[in-house]
Amino acid sequence: MHQNMVEVRDLSKTFKRSNGEMLDAVKNVSFDIRQGEIFSLLGPNGAGKTTTISMISGLLTPTHGDATIGGHSITRQPLEAKKLLGVVPQEIALYPTLSARQNLEFFGKMYGLSGAALSKRADEVLEFIDLKDRQHDKIESFSGGMKRRVNIGVGLLHQPRLIYMDEPTVGIDPQSRRRILDTVKQMQTEMGMTVLYTSHLMEEVQEISDRVGIIDHGELIAVGTVGDLIQKVGEEDRLILKVGSQVVSELLLTRFRHEVEGVTGATHEQAHSNGSDGSATQPDGLIIVIARRGRRALPDLIRVANDSGLDIVSVEVREPDLEAVFLHLTGRELRD
Ligand SMILES: Nc1ncnc2c1ncn2[C@@H]1O[C@H](COP(=O)(O)OP(=O)(O)O)[C@@H](O)[C@H]1O
Ligand SMILES: [Mg+2]
Fold first, then answer.
1. Crossing angle, helix 144-156 and helix 174-191, to 10 degrees?
2. Quick check: CB of 15 below 6 Å from ligand 1?
3. Could you identify the atom of ligand 1 that is nearest to the CA of residue 44?
4. Domains of the chain
């Protein structure tokens, strides 16, 4: 048996946009997914996650490159490859006027299940996604989180060894998100499945993944365990200094870098947050400082800022995480 469940090699996709321009949505991406691991693709919206998943599940033909599942090429032996694979698409793909059970039975028939075997499998899946008590209700009456769970159930019907889950927690409440993350872990621990998970949310990827690939502008820019990736940024902390609508000069940022020990970088970002009355947006300036032993650098940072006539409204010290890895690799924040 292959040690790698999935092997992706030099995968590329170029789209022709409606204006005639060519877009390299995925560029020479290569990675492996080992048997039994949870592997995540982490990247912002538009990074190429769905395009990658579509190619390695046989829904989209690569411009270049290939992938194997259990040793079978998805482009040349798609039937063998797809037998091992379940897919949970980013967009909910269910019939709203059918019940949860009717949806599972419909898709089960497409997988070739029928009769008692289909009924038994629908029961097992409903049990696993914890929707037995709502199985006869129509999908259109379900919450976003419940629809997501049925979507996952469809992907599990034919008992695949491998499942791809494309942003399964987008647009649902925190409790439903928690439930889905637990479900992902259960697939690994109780069913021995291999999981490819995608998200633009650093926290959940950090929590569930054995290994992570960071994808940005169609390129895989880093692969490793969360620990490996964090090591790349070294021991540097990030200090988030809130400065409201005050003007931040380049000179101040330069002074931070030159005069404060441990500081390796300082940038200014203008964000907008909702006003306290919930209506208007207020400017919400941030200075992001990268520093070794950030807490120690703090008093000097505040002194230099005050020296330049800048008030620091609040300070947050963030220890290295995947967000910091992304910032380190791209120079940009990984945000919603
Ligand atoms: N069918 C398509 N035609 C043209 N451009 C596309 C198509 N599908 C995706 N794209 C573009 O490819 C890029 C990657 O998209 P996608 O893979 O959906 O990213 P992600 O899933 O990481 O948000 C985006 O710029 C997107 O607009
Ligand atoms: Mg996507």
1. 20
2. yes
3. 22
4. 4-231 (3.40.50.300), 235-319 (3.30.70.1380)
